[in-house]
Design goal:
Number of helices: 5
Number of strands: 14
CATH topology of the largest domain: tt1808, chain A
CATH architecture of the largest domain: Alpha-Beta Complex
Strand content: 25-35%
Shape: elongated
Order of helices and strands: EEHHEEEEEHEHEEEEEEH
Oligomer: single chain
Length: 264
């Protein structure tokens, strides 16, 4: 019976004068469960894994976390449109899935995901409908989500089949950090090594992931950074200002040329 120790009888012998008198010692040994199989361990993990709910403490995002996730996702969307890539990019979209031995659907909501499925509006990413887990997921780590993102979600995304899992921790008063896990040759997650410039090369996106202040951004092989919407707007504003400056300069030179031409 569970929790009840087995009683083992042990007979102890004595010298010849006491050979006819034997005592029975009662020795208690604890009852032990047989070890869980790997499949049972995974089922237990998924059974205990809490859903990403809006009221969960680890779901609270400050400005640094929100804008990092939003800007990164939007820059990937723009890149996919410009390059004609068959990507579906989403930010903070719930992924729903079922697990054998666990009743009902579970929900995880990565801060950014990229999947090779049709690009259409979704209210959630249903794994049973889509057919495959997103190969790339990123979490922007907050003080409240550190353990959740580094431990529980790492194991969950590994079991669910993600190929790459990036973790970005933005900091306003200290250096932001970027690390992650990717699927190794053995088939399981392993630490994602950075290059000598601290960048992570994504085989899924065919882009580098780089830290730029409080943002995580993507960079092409030739060093072109994918701009956030704010950075793109600023680039256009400066370009327009430069065009206006050159136009004024051209008009000035034309005016000077006209003034110096006696036949004008």
């Amino acid at each position: 019976m569970c929790g009840v120790p087995h009683l083992v009888c042990r007979q102890s012998g004595h010298d010849s004068s006491l050979s006819r008198h034997r005592e029975t010692d009662m020795v208690q040994t604890p009852w032990r469960h047989p070890p869980l199989t790997k499949e049972q361990e995974n089922t237990l993990f998924m059974l205990l894994l809490e859903d990403d709910r809006e009221d969960a403490p680890w779901m609270v995002m400050g400005d640094l976390q929100f804008w990092s996730a939003s800007d990164f996702a939007q820059s990937l969307c723009a890149h996919a449109r410009e390059e004609g890539l068959a990507w579906y990019v989403a930010a903070m979209l719930p992924i729903t899935f079922e697990w054998p031995g666990v009743s009902g659907k579970k929900t995880l909501a990565p801060d950014t995901l990229v999947s090779f499925v049709p690009d259409r509006a979704r209210g959630s990413y249903d794994l049973a409908v889509e057919g495959a887990f997103p190969p790339f997921v990123l979490e922007v780590v907050s003080p409240a989500s550190t353990n959740r993102d580094h431990e529980e979600k790492r194991q969950a995304y590994d079991l669910l089949g993600a190929r790459e899992y990036a973790l970005f921790t933005p900091r306003a008063e200290d250096a932001s950090t970027l690390d992650g896990f990717r699927r190794g040759r053995a088939g399981a997650f392993e630490p994602w090594p950075a290059d000598d410039r601290g960048r992570l090369w994504s085989n899924v996106l065919e882009l580098y992931l780089v830290v730029r202040g409080t943002l995580v951004q993507a960079e092409t092989r030739d060093g072109q950074v994918l701009l956030t919407p704010q950075q793109e707007a600023e680039r256009r504003r400066r370009a327009e200002e430069e065009v206006d400056r050159l136009r004024r300069e051209l008009n000035r030179l034309k005016g000077e040329s006209s003034d110096n031409d006696p036949g004008a």
